Every structure is written in structure tokens, then in C-alpha cells.
């Protein structure tokens, strides 16, 4: 995709991508989120903004040190109205639950189940955003919403491309609000994203889309 198409988007005074119609009748089955440098603050904003009745499971890769422990989900439990846990191998995916990729493991999604992998790092990262996004695209296709947040590399770009190819939705944090804009910039340059949103706009968007999609 030519970068020329995107320049007017990022130069808009309101900083929001043009709103193309989305399919409100679709039942989204999973939300996958990827972030790296600066992601903690943005995740606090997003998770605190999700309503208690949010029913779609959320899987998150936050690049974290291999020695990181259970303290990451514990930290976000203070902000979230939903349960927050580290994902476990061969774990059934429950609606309305937020799952983090555990330290030093790739997190993969199959239909209804998580699996963990110690395969080689991807883009120097394990867990890898690309691995999560690509597996979600394979498992859920057009019923996937992918969210790419702040980060200092291009992990997530390939995965976002996979989700779009399967008909899913891609949301990107507005690069001007990112502590490290390389990650959102790389996705905007490569993928025809559905929304470019500021952190405080992401939770309302997810709540609206998933509520509309679940209506009969």
C-alpha cells in the first residue's frame, strides 16, 4: 500500500482515520492486542475502559522480560473489571477474560484453546505479536479484531496483514500518542487499517463493535 494514501489520514486535525463502514452483524470471537515499549500505560487506559459485560475474550502480547512473573496480570487486575490472567498451555478460552502471553513463551490461538510455544524468538521477541495475530487469523478469520499499540519495532505488522487478509479488523494506536511510534507506523504503512485511534478511544470502539456484532 502506497504511503501517499496515508499521509492525509495522519495529517487530519482530529487525528482519526476516515471511518469506513464495518459489518455490524458479525459476531467477533476474539480480540488480540500487541504492544511493547510504552504499552503498560496504554493498556491501563484500554482495560480500565472496558465494561464488565464485555463478553469477547482478549489475548495480549506485551513484550516482557523472560524473568517476568505473574505480577503483570496482577498489576492489570487493579484496572480491569474483567478477569486478567496469564494464559496456560491447552487452556480453554473463556468469554470476558483477558489473557496475557506469559514471559518467554509464544502465545498461539486455535479455535477455543490457547497453546504455548518455546520456538525461537520472532523479531527478537518471545512472546511475539506476529505469532499471536497470525494464529488468531488462522483460527477465527474475519471474526478477529487486532489492536496494535506503541512499540519500538515492527512486530505485529506481519500479523496485522494476516488478519486483514482473512477479513478481520485492525485498529492502530495513533502514532502521535505512542511512546514509541515505530510499531504503529509500520502497520499504517503496510495495512489498510480500519481505525487509527487515541488510547482513550480504543475501549469504547471495542465495546461498541462487539456489542453490535452480538445483537441478533
Amino acid at each position: 500500500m502506497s504511503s501517499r494514501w496515508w499521509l492525509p489520514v495522519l495529517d487530519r486535525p482530529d487525528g482519526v482515520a476516515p471511518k469506513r463502514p464495518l459489518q455490524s452483524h458479525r459476531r467477533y470471537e476474539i480480540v488480540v492486542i500487541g504492544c511493547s515499549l510504552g504499552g503498560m500505560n496504554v493498556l491501563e487506559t484500554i482495560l480500565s475502559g472496558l465494561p464488565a459485560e464485555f463478553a469477547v475474550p482478549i489475548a495480549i502480547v506485551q513484550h516482557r522480560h523472560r524473568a517476568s512473573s505473574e505480577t503483570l496480570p496482577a498489576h492489570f487486575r487493579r484496572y480491569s473489571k474483567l478477569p486478567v490472567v496469564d494464559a496456560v498451555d491447552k487452556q480453554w478460552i473463556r468469554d470476558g477474560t483477558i489473557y496475557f502471553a506469559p514471559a518467554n513463551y509464544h502465545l498461539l490461538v486455535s479455535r477455543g484453546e490457547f497453546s504455548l510455544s518455546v520456538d525461537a524468538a520472532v523479531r527478537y521477541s518471545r512472546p511475539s505479536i506476529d505469532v499471536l495475530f497470525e494464529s488468531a487469523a488462522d483460527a477465527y478469520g474475519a471474526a478477529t479484531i487486532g489492536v496494535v499499540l506503541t512499540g519500538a519495532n515492527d512486530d505485529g505488522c506481519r500479523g496485522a496483514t494476516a488478519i486483514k487478509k482473512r477479513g478481520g479488523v485492525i485498529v492502530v494506536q495513533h502514532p502521535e500518542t505512542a511512546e514509541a511510534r515505530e510499531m504503529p507506523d509500520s502497520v499504517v504503512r503496510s495495512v489498510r487499517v480500519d481505525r487509527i485511534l487515541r488510547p482513550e478511544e480504543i475501549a469504547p470502539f471495542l465495546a461498541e463493535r462487539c456489542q453490535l456484532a452480538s445483537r441478533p
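Residues 1-25 have pLDDT under 50 and may be disordered. The longest strand covers residues 30-35.
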